[in-house]
Amino acid sequence: METPRDDPRFLRSREAIGGAARALLLAHGPGAITHARVAEHAGIARATVYRHWPRTDQLLAEAMATVPMPFFDAPGTPTRDWLVRELTALARQLDLHDVRVVATTLANAALWEEHMDARRAGFADLLTARLTEALEAAQARGEVELHAAPRDAAALAVGPLYYRATIERGTTDDATVAALVDHLGRWS
Amino acid sequence: METPRDDPRFLRSREAIGGAARALLLAHGPGAITHARVAEHAGIARATVYRHWPRTDQLLAEAMATVPMPFFDAPGTPTRDWLVRELTALARQLDLHDVRVVATTLANAALWEEHMDARRAGFADLLTARLTEALEAAQARGEVELHAAPRDAAALAVGPLYYRATIERGTTDDATVAALVDHLGRWS
């Protein structure tokens, strides 16, 4: 008989399996997320893992399930200072191995897996929506004359941090963060 | 007895295996590159695949072995026009599924696999070196007064294209390409 999805035993298994899959992902990469290794790491019978998560991409989804997107969520003023602070915080997060793992795994897995693609789109749309709202409000208040369309702001400002972190594997310094904010418009 | 690495039979096997691994990667993702599937797709005995490529990360390396890096390789003048042309060509490449696969697989696999990390670093360093040389020469000729350090040019100009293509899964238009080139300095 199928265990109900709100059964406490199922929820405990799910938490253990998510933790095990995440640990394997961070330490060894997505290829390490197999039913055998997740079951062993979580201390759960392999049959249980197969029953609820028959495919390995579902295990990868559990590994990525708790990734938050806290950036640009509460606009502050002056907007320029707030953008510099948020972008700096994001740059410091992208200095971390675990954050690089999550970002590149998401971008890669989304090319084939529908569930991951929905998650990728969710992150991208959220970032674009938050930046668009903040920049349009700042322009309405006369804080900035925008050079770029607000919907391009994420690519223009976050793109360089993401490339530096995941392709060049370096860090983005304060001067570059300030320059990126200044590329978005003329701040008064 | 071990087949010598310059033996024509070995080279034919290697080519078939590289082609099979690449086809599986593009269609199904890095997780599809297993000894069994590569052997079947290449029409080669599984034992042969295991003998020469005992680990799956070596098969992934074969799948990525022939990826070229043709961008920014032959500077033209005026430098601003050349940069716009090259960046536009790169943006059009990043519109393609296969190029997104290669870029995101490299960034992801490099976090755990030494061979992939060397390849990632090779791409990143080559791009930085080419842009640095072209921008410094343009500045010496009085074509531009650079705002950014030339070593940051790849992150500033290519980063937004890479983010747009692999996180937002959209395209970078001509106006954005022109703006990115203008962010690098004041062109005369």
Automatic annotation (TrEMBL), chains A, B:
Keywords for the protein's UniProt record, in alphabetical order: DNA-binding, Transcription, Transcription regulation
Domain HTH tetR-type, residue spans: 11-71
One MF term in the entry's GO annotations: DNA-binding transcription factor activity
Superkingdom as given in the UniProt entry: Bacteria
Gene3D superfamilies named in the record: Homeodomain-like, Tetracycline Repressor, domain 2
Keyword Transcription regulation: yes
Membrane-spanning intervals of the chain: none
DNA-binding region per UniProt: 34-53
PROSITE patterns: HTH_TETR_2 (PS50977)
Keyword Cell wall biogenesis/degradation: no
Annotated Pfam families: TetR_C_11, TetR_N
Protein name per the record: HTH tetR-type domain-containing protein
Organism: Cellulomonas cellasea DSM 20118
